[in-house]
Amino acid sequence: MATETSTETSAGQERPAHRRRRGGRLGAFLFATPLRRHLVLAVLAMVAVSVALESTDAFRNGQLAAMAYFGIAAGGLTVLVGLNGQISLGHGAFMAIGAYTAALMLRGENPLPLAVVLVAAAAVALAAGALVGVAAARLHGPYLAGATLALAVAVPGIPLHFSGVLGGEQGLTVRVPAVPDWFADAVFFVTGQDPGRSRYLGYVGWFCLVVTFVLLANLARGRVGRTWRAVRDNEVAAELAGIDLGRARVLAFVVSATCAGLAGGLLALSARIAAPSGFTLSLSLLLLSAIVLGGLGSLPGALVGAALLTFLPQLATTLGQDLGLSDVRAAELAPLAYGLVTMLVVLFAPSGIAGWVRRRRTSPSSSPVPSGRHET
Amino acid sequence: MQQLFTTLLTGLTLGMVYAAFALALVLIWRATRIVNFAQAPMAMLTTYVALVLIEAGYSYWLGFAAALLSGLVLGALVERFVIRYVDPRSEINPVILTLGLFIVLHALAALVFGARYRSFPAPFGLRGFQVGDTTIALTGFGIFTILSVLAVVVLLVLLFRYTDVGLKMRASAFNQEVARLLGVRVGRMLTLGWALAAVVGSLSGLLIAGGGLVHPSFMDGVVVYGFVAAVLGGLDSPVGAVAGGLILGLSLSLVSGYVGSQLVSLAALAILMAVLLVRPGGLFARVRERRV
User: Fold this and answer.
1) By the CB < 8 Å criterion, does B88 face chain A?
2) Interface touch B110/A329, C-beta < 8 Å
3) Which residues cross the membrane (chain B) (predicted)?
4) Which residues of A touch B279 (CB under 8 A)?
5) Is residue B198 a contact partner of residue B75, using CB atoms and an 8 Å limit?
6) What is the DSSP string of A237-302?
7) Which is the most buried residue in A199, B84, B109, B192, by most CB within 10 A?
8) Nearest C-alpha of chain B: how many angstroms from A359?
9) In chain B, what percentage of residues exceed pLDDT 70?
10) B130 min Cα distance to partner chain A (Å)
């Protein structure tokens, strides 16, 4: 939605920059470079989001906000797994770090502006990501998976141990800051309604998502993205071409963890709480399954995955209740579906939904399989 | 002194369970070069099989046997109908596949057996033995745990060293192509390897559940500890897995006793990172170049 550009297009087959995709001078100007294309799409996406948020009720606004933070986390993860070939089962941990940072910063009487809080959440996750990334860069496949799995299990134990500061099992409640006046005025000017808090959070979440996706898409299309893909596809060749493997890996991990931290901050705002039970192993695994479903390495795919994570549970639970299951059991239908589809996708269509769409648009030979293709 | 002794004894028992779980991971790694992250929910599922039988009024031992048997069947089915079809050249796909299986089995268990905590009986006493006035931390069930894991290790060693099947399994793990040329049915050996591993995993599930509570995610931590133990010993070595399990059990028990029980998994992470960064092949590995 935010970026229609295929992030998978490898260096050799980038579209000619001067090619006119839309008729007319304005079109040619707006779509001339990837950056401009991404920015135009970002503006269009923001308009679409505003329409979606204004035309739905508070409950749907909350769901859209949830989709935004899942989308940001999945976007970061899909860049790491799909483009760089590293796997992380620990992104729930980075989300926890972001969420607790945001919760702690919003505690005082006069909390800092929301933008500062969210940047801080991302920054703390960035630091943690750098720490883990340096270690992770030396690990491969199952070892990396196991190490990040340990991270996902270990981090929720920290607030339990330091329950004085971090609230223990109950977690920290988060006070959502009031809607700023300028924002309320602007929305009122356009729509004639006052935005509620959940609508405000929806705007904040989707604004963050669009900004994140523009940055990620540019990163993926440019020199850094090419480096990441080179490292993924053939380490030896990449090293011979002068790429510092460790640096490329750490950078990818840091970028990915930062996204997860930002997503965690938004999650804390939306859920109004940061508690260990919100960051279980399942969260990390579901994020991974979301990007596998969408298609590894594809940002639009990550958005599709986030939409599935947000909206499928309710559908599946309703379906389960209609079939006569109790609430608790019906709630398990959604993960069951994710898990099954994840397995089927890995076995039969490793490029996911985005890859399937891409294959329908282009000839089969030009769609590379995005999963890691290391020699074993 | 008393506390140290208690902590070490608890660590020994725990270590044996981790060793069993690590052993299951190592068996699969040797056969198929896959770390089976779904081992934990597989063991959880078979533990539920035992629980259902026991709650229906059958004896503990019948449930025990049924759990191990269902582990055998489950492991074979998973290998034959799921793992067989994954692209082995990719490093990431098998990992994602086993994690997908993880999610599926988890949801399935909660769907079928419910998500509430249920207590699981133990066949032997859970109170420490009395020596004079003091109670030592070794329970009847603890001794059973240690002995059963040791028995499994001995049985596996006998199987791999002294039987035809063991030799065939080692051959197919060593080199599938050559083994196939020599007439070994490699596919069957892989299925058998997964089945045996699932039995060992089920045993660790039963041992952890004994005298405790069972719910769909009661094994989630163990998959991490088992993995750390397996990596400590080098993923390739069954003896290393047992040693790694014991080392991990003792050190985690010390952390739990002297630092704080919530930081156990953080300590496991620290140990894992230290081992991977200093000796990536495990504590007992001979130096070998890493494959690119």
Assistant:
1) yes
2) yes
3) 6-27, 34-54, 60-83, 95-115, 135-160, 190-211, 266-285
4) none
5) yes
6) HHHHTT--HHHHHHHHHHHHHHHHHHHHHHHHHHHTEE-GGGG-HHHHHHHHHHHHHH-TT-HHHH
7) A199
8) 20
9) 94
10) 33
Q: Which residues of B touch A342 (CB under 8 A)?
A: 96, 99-100, 103
Give the pLDDT confidence of B229-250 residue by residue, as tens digits.
998 888 888 888 899 999 999 9
Q: What is the pLDDT of residues A166-211, one digit of tens each?
A: 888 888 888 888 888 888 888 888 777 777 788 888 889 999 999 9
Tokens of A259: 């996204």
Query: Which residue pairs, CB below 8 angstroms and at least 24 apart, start in A181-188?
Result: none
What average pLDDT does this structure show over A73-90?
A: 92
Contact of B274 with chain A, judged by CB distance below 8 Å, is answered with no
Beta-sheet pairing, B128-131 with B118-119: unpaired
Residue pair A302/A77 in contact by the 8 Å Cβ criterion: yes
A372: pLDDT strictly greater than 70:
no
pLDDT for the residue numbered B206: 93
The ipTM assigned to this model is 0.86
> Taking CB atoms and an 8 Å limit, are B91 and A85 in contact across chains?
yes
Of A145, A154, A335, the CB nearest to B107: A335
- CA-nearest of A76, A72, A136, A74 to A257 is A76
CB contact (8 A) between residue B266 and residue A154: yes
Measured between CA atoms, how close is A124 to chain B, in angstroms? 18
Can you point out the beta strands (E) in chain A?
Answer: 172-173, 273-274
- Which parts of A79-113 fold into alpha helices (H)? 84, 91-105
- pLDDT confidence of B104, banded at 50, 70, 90? very high
Radius of gyration of chain A (CA): 21
**Residue range A87-113, pLDDT digits in tens:** 899 899 999 999 999 999 988 777 788
Phi/psi at A278 (5° precision): -80, -10
Torsion A230-A235-A236-A238 (CA) sign: positive
Asked if B276 and B266 count as a contact pair (C-beta separation under 8 A), the reply is no
Q: Does A289 sit within 8 Å of B103, measured CB to CB?
A: yes
Whether A139 sits inside 8 A of B269 (CB atoms) is no
CB-based contact B113:A103 (threshold 8 Å): no
Question: Among residues 131-190 of chain B, which lie with CB inside 8 Å of chain A?
Answer: none
Interface of B with A in 204-233 (CB under 8 A): 217, 220-221, 223-224, 227-228, 231
Q: Give the residue among A258, A341, A242, A249 at the shortest CA–CA distance from A295.
A: A341
B residues 37-56 lying closer than 8 A (beta carbon) to A: 37
Residue at token pair 């796909």 = B93
Mutate to test the interface with B, among A277, A281, A312 (most CBs of B within 10 A): A281
Which residues in chain B have Cβ-Cβ distances shorter than 8 Å to A333? Answer: 107, 111
Inspect the interface and report whether the beta carbons of A145 and B97 lie closer than 8 Å. Answer: no
DSSP labels, B235-290: TT-HHHHHHHHHHHHHHHHHHHHHT-GGGHHHHHHHHHHHHHHH-TT-TTPPP-PP
Contacts of B19 (CB under 8 A, 6+ apart): B149, B153, B229, B241, B242, B243, B244, B245, B246, B249
Counting Cα atoms < 13 Å in the Cβ hemisphere of B44 gives 32
**DSSP state letter for B134:** E
> With left for phi above 0 and alpha for psi between -120 and 50, is residue A22 left, alpha or beta?
beta
Q: Which residues of B touch A147 (CB under 8 A)?
A: 269, 272-273, 276
pTM (2 d.p.): 0.85
